[in-house]
Amino acid sequence: MPDKKSGKPTAAVEVVMVDRSATTRRPNFPRMTGASVHVSLAGEIGLRIVRGDYPPGTILPNEAKWSEVFDVSRSAVREAIKMLMAKGLLSSRPKIGSWVEPKERWNLLDRDVLGWYAASPDRESFLRAVQELRHMIEPEATALAAERRTDEQMNAISQALHDMDQATSLQQRTESDARFHIAILRASGNDLLVPLGVLIESALNHLFAHVTREEDNLRYALKLHENIEKSIRLQRPNMARNAVRKALANTDDIIARWSR
């Protein structure tokens, strides 16, 4: 990674050579067209970074190379690089180019970055990491919601539960499930917890996109969510904590079965 003052790569960081295959256009890769070409390009490069094609410290190909690989304009490449810089994945300097930043600088609460993570070969580790965070945050957040929720917030939680029950597809069910947990974070009264909802939403969407849930499991999961809703409605914090822990344990079991 280049030094901030001199603009030259520091001696402490090894510059990683780019694998030629990583900058080769796949034969069946569709040509990017339309006004959002740079968005599609940022998605393709971002996914390659997150899945490890370009490790931290790698100097990426220049604009001309990306333009050739994806058959897009250089302006589209520039806009894509700017997007990835805004997400913390890249830095750039004139005469040096763009390089991949250390993982700790990536914005892991960005929806796109989360999506790339969940689509990477290491998605099981990602899901387990999200679950660990949920175990640390959600029981207490739900207890706070039981103490602080307003009638309007309670209605949002109850409506999400109702939508889970009435869903006619797994996608609808998962979307309602995520909305249920996000509504609880909002009802906690702590604004710092709300952004974590994007983690829960991403984890649920990508987990259940790869897992076929059986009818018995769906009914059991709904019952667990009903217990959470009831504890918040009755304003019983301890009951709320325990109900969430049981629901999280059920998700842990699903991940464990999926990974076998």
Short description:
The chain has 260 residues and is mainly alpha-helical. It has helices at residues 37-50, 63-70, 74-86, 111-119, 123-148, 151-166, 170-187, 197-209, 215-233, 237-258; strands at 90-93, 97-100. Residues 35-103 form the HTH gntR-type domain.
Description:
The chain has 260 residues and is mostly helical. It has ten helices and two strands. It has helices spanning 37-50, 63-70, 74-86, 111-119, 123-148, 151-166, 170-187, 197-209, 215-233, 237-258, and strands at 90-93, 97-100. The chain has a two-stranded antiparallel ribbon. Helix 5 (123-148) runs parallel beside helix 9, helix 5 packs antiparallel against helix 10 (237-258) and helix 9 runs antiparallel to helix 10. The longest helix is centred in the middle third of the chain and has 26 residues, at 123-148. Residues 6-17 have low confidence and may be disordered.
What attributes characterize this protein structure?
10 helices; TF_FadR/GntR_C; 2 strands; 260 residues; WH-like_DNA-bd_sf; 61% helix; two-stranded antiparallel ribbon; elongated; mainly alpha
